[in-house]
Every structure is written in C-alpha cells, then in structure tokens.
Please model this.
Amino acid sequence: MQTAFVAVAVVLIAISVFRGYPAHQDEVFFKAAGLHWAMGEGWRAPEEENYAGWTPPLQEVFASYPPIYPFLFGTLIKVFGFSQTTANCYDACIHVLLAAVLVIFARRAIPQLPLVAWSLGLCWLLSGYPARPDRLAMLFGFSALVFLVTPQIGVKRWLDNLVGVLLGLCAATSVPAAVAMGPLVVALCCRGPARWVFARLLAIGLPAVLVAALVCLPVYLYDARALQQNLDATNRITHALGFTEGLRHLLRLNVATAVCSALLIVAGLVLSRPENSRDWWRWIRWSFVPLVPLGVFLTQSSFQANYHWFLIPWLAVALFSPERRVPPPLFLRTTILVAAFALPILYAQRTTLSALVTGGDQRVERYRVAVEAVVPPGAVVMARDYWWLLGERNRVLDPMVWTTAATRPEYLVLSGYGSGAPGRPNALSPEQISRDYELVLDQLGRSVPTLFGVPLSRSTFSAGPMIYRRKDASD
Model:
C-alpha cells in the first residue's frame, strides 16, 4: 500500500509539471494577492475588483481571507516565477503532504491497523484537490492533531505549545478549517482531571491566538481598513440560514463529499458504539464531537456547508474505533471506507484521466505566441486559466467580477475547461458577451477526452484559447 501511495503522489506532481491542471473557479481569488505582493504592488487583488461589495474593495487591500496561502504562493513566485506550473505544483505538493500527515494521524489513532491508515491516505490522494487555502489549513490542523491523538505524547507542555502554534497557522490560513479543528483538539485534550485539561487547553489556546494575530498583523499594518473588510466579509458569510437550506446548498454544490461524510457519520455512530459504560467518552469524542462544527457549517451562509469535508479524515478514522485495545472487525468497515470515497474519487479522477489521455502539453504556456499576438501589453483582460500567462503583463479581471467590476475589459481570454460542451468557452457564456465583443481568435478544443470510448467529461480538456475583443476597443 505504501508503494501505491508513493506512485500516486508522483503521478499527481508529474501531471502538474508536464501536463497541467485547469484553474479552479476560485483560484485567482485566493492567489492574486500573492502575485501582486511578489511584484511589489502591495497586498491587494485588483483581479477581484469590487467583488461582493466589500469595504474597502479587494483591489485596494485583500483581507477577506487569511494571508498564509497567498503569501506562500507569492514566495514561490519570487523563487520560481509566475506560471501555471508553479501554481499547479504548489497545490499538488500541499495535497501530497496533507495525505502523508493523514497517514501519520491514522497510524497514531489506530496503531494496530497500519493498512487502514495507508488506505485512508491513498483514498485522500485520489479524491482530488481544489486550488484553495483549505488543504493547507488542514495540513496545519491535522499536524496539530497528530501530537494529541496519542495521550502519552500530548502530556508534554512544549508539545501542547507546538500544537497551539500549528492551530494558529491553521486559523491564519482558513478560519473555517480552524472552526472544524478546534472542537477536535478539545475532544482529544479532555482526557484526565479537569484542572489538567484546563491547563492543556490554555497551553494550546494562547500560542494559537498569538500566532494567528502575528501572522495577520502585517495585512492590518499595510492598510488600517483591512480589519473593516475582514469584519464585513465575516458578517456576510456567517448570517444564519435554516438547516434545510444549508443542506440543500450542500447537495447541489458538493454531493460527492456530502454522501461520503453522511456514510462515514452513520457507520461510525453505529459500528463504533460503546461496548460498556467506560466506553461512552470514546464514542462521544470520536463520533459526536465532529457533528458540532458540521452543524455550524450547515446553518451558515450557502458555501459554508461545503466545509464539511474538513471532517472527513477524522470521520474515517472514527469508523475504526480508536482507543479500543481490541481491533474491530475490519472487512465491513474497510468496505464502507472505500465505498464512502468512491464518489469523490470518481469525480476527481475524471480530471486526472483527462490529463493523461489527452495528447500534448495542456498548459496555457503552449499558446503564449498566439495569445500575445492578439492581446497587446497593458490591455485590460478578463481571464481565469490565462491569468497564469497574462497576470504579470496585463491588468487581468477574474470572470467572477463580470457584473461588479467598474472597469470594462478590452479582451476576454477564455478556455473550454468545465464549460459543459465542446467548443463552448467557460466562465462566461456566448450570450453574455456577444453584444459588446467580437471573436478574434478561436483555438478552443472541439473534442472531449475519452477512455476506451467512454467520455470522461462533457467539456473539452484543452487550454486552447477563445479570445473576444470589445468592439469599441482600439486595435
């Protein structure tokens, strides 16, 4: 199993280097501030002009999300340059490191079942990774849990301080991830006398708050209004919704991981139920505590429900009854683990298989000459995948700000990834752009990737550009 884990990790990184993955819907949003910081233009995201109506706007300061993820990306840009390869490898390496940490976490939680731990890591590797800060936050969060999951390790005070540092880094990367990890940390600390538990939580909590504050402080020093934007964004995404509405959003946007989580929750509650009165706390700690952050996510604004997948590794480990001396029956539980990950894996691997079966390099760099021949330097461009190519050369707007940006783009540079039909551009529909823009270049792919004659997608897997020019823009 270790060999399979390493092989899959190598393949994922190799695809990032030699083939390329398309941009995630939110990728520009979460990486833009890092690019402009690396270019010496301040901690801002002009690509997200007037997005969501936050005050101050993101083109002036980026404080709607914690800074670690874009900062590390900007650091990589300073070292390796700005490109699709840099962005893809950044997220691929985070994903592989997180999977490795999950293996270590599972090995400590269920030391008698090493094969299960490696199976969890392999399933996580295969379940894909969006280009968002959340995986990096989970890397910090589960690294913290590694030091707590084995009681005899967690009693050392300096290790509790280290756990606090890691939890602070988690919060300074993704606040929802910290909301998910916090109750899990408390659950693992609540073993022993109350005074001892309080001392441990204090040893963890103080460094966590201090580290998170110190990491975010430079953003607030850069622009004093950053705190106002941060509070504005928080208020907008934490207004309460009904439970059923949150569940409806979840099933519409992320049904694969929703089914995975639901199966693991139900199976964990049933199969890991307590054997005697002394076993109740174990059951509550592993099977009930994760329902607390899950309930928070399901009752907040629409997208928050999708953060349930922070809890999936914990739920997978809980299925195998940690802290029991006698290993539980494995066949049924292992079958449930594989079945739970089946949908996320099938969904994610369509992209990987598409990258493998599609001939040639599918990175946007391949089309540099054609794109730069049409789009002059300095022109205002709306692009997502081609942000990697034009971000340093042009003023780029994210397609997410199509309806909010005051600046009208002179060019639209689109690809066909995820558009739903061959020959159709993504991000913006032809109906949205036909009135004010004219087509000047079309190298969009027209065929869908197939494996043994079976279509892997409804869209083409090609970075070939479709470029529109605004009709009143000068040549």
User: Anything to note?
Assistant: Strands lie at 380-383, 395-397, 411-414, 437-442, 450-451, 454-455, 466-470. The chain has a mean pLDDT of 88. The longest helix spans residues 194-222.
